[in-house]
C-alpha cells in the first residue's frame, strides 16, 4: 500500500504558499475584471468558473505547476472571459457561445417539445412550480429554461397583472 500521509514540511509549505498566492490573485483579478467573472449568466460564464477552480486546484496541489505558471493561466482565463463578455455584444458571437432561453410553459399550456429539447421532465417542471409557490395554473404566466440551465417561473397571484412581452423577447417558443 502506498503512503497515505506522504507530506513533508517543504511540500506543505509549497502548498500553503501557492494557495495564498493564487487566492490573492483570484481576489485581485476579480476586482480588476469585475464580478461578472463568477456570475452565472451564461454557459460560458459557468465554464469560466469551472476552469478557474480547476486551475486553482492544479496550481495549489501539483508540484509540477509553479505559482507563476498558475498565475499566468489564471490571467489568461480572466482575459478570455472579459474578451468573450465584450464580443457578446455582437449577435453572431453571442449566437455562437450562448444558449437561447426556451419557453417550457405559458399559462396552463406545457410545451412538451421544448421540455424534450431542454431534457426537463414534467416532474422537474412540477417541482419548480412548487418551489415558486404556484398553487394554481391561473397564476402561471410563463416558465422559462434559462441560458444557465436554471428554470424561471414567472407568476402572479393578481389576475389583473400580466407579463410584459419584453420579458420574453429573446425566449425561443
From TrEMBL:
Keywords per UniProt: Cell membrane, Membrane, Transmembrane, Transmembrane helix
Cellular compartment(s): Cell membrane
InterPro entries on file: DUF421 (IPR007353), UPF0702_alpha/beta_dom_sf (IPR023090), YetF_N (IPR048454)
UniProt membrane topology term: Multi-pass membrane protein
Gene3D superfamilies on file: bsu07140 like domains
Domain annotation YetF-like N-terminal transmembrane: ranges: 24-81
Segments traversing the membrane: 12-34, 46-65
Pfam families on file: DUF421, YetF_N
YetF C-terminal domain segment(s): 90-169
UniProt keyword Cell membrane, yes or no: yes
Keyword field contains Cell membrane: yes
UniProt record similarity statement: Belongs to the UPF0702 family.
UniProt protein name: DUF421 domain-containing protein
Lineage: Bacteria, Pseudomonadati, Bacteroidota, Flavobacteriia, Flavobacteriales
Amino acid at each position: 500500500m502506498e503512503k497515505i500521509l506522504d507530506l513533508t514540511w517543504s511540500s506543505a509549505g509549497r502548498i500553503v504558499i501557492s494557495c495564498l498566492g493564487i487566492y490573492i490573485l483570484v481576489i485581485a483579478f476579480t476586482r480588476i475584471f469585475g464580478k461578472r467573472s463568477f456570475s452565472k449568466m451564461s454557459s460560458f460564464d459557468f465554464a469560466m468558473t469551472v476552469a478557474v477552480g480547476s486551475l486553482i486546484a492544479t496550481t495549489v496541489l501539483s508540484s509540477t505547476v509553479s505559482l507563476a505558471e498558475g498565475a499566468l493561466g489564471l490571467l489568461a482565463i480572466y482575459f478570455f472571459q472579459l474578451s468573450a463578455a465584450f464580443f457578446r455584444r455582437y449577435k453572431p458571437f453571442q449566437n455562437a457561445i450562448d444558449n437561447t432561453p426556451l419557453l417550457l410553459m405559458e399559462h396552463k399550456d406545457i410545451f412538451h417539445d421544448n421540455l424534450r429539447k431542454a431534457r426537463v421532465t414534467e416532474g422537474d417542471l412540477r417541482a419548480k412550480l412548487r418551489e415558486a409557490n404556484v398553487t394554481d395554473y391561473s397564476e402561471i404566466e410563463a416558465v422559462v429554461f434559462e441560458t444557465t440551465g436554471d428554470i424561471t417561473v414567472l407568476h402572479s397571484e393578481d389576475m389583473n397583472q400580466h407579463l410584459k412581452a419584453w420579458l420574453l423577447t429573446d425566449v425561443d417558443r
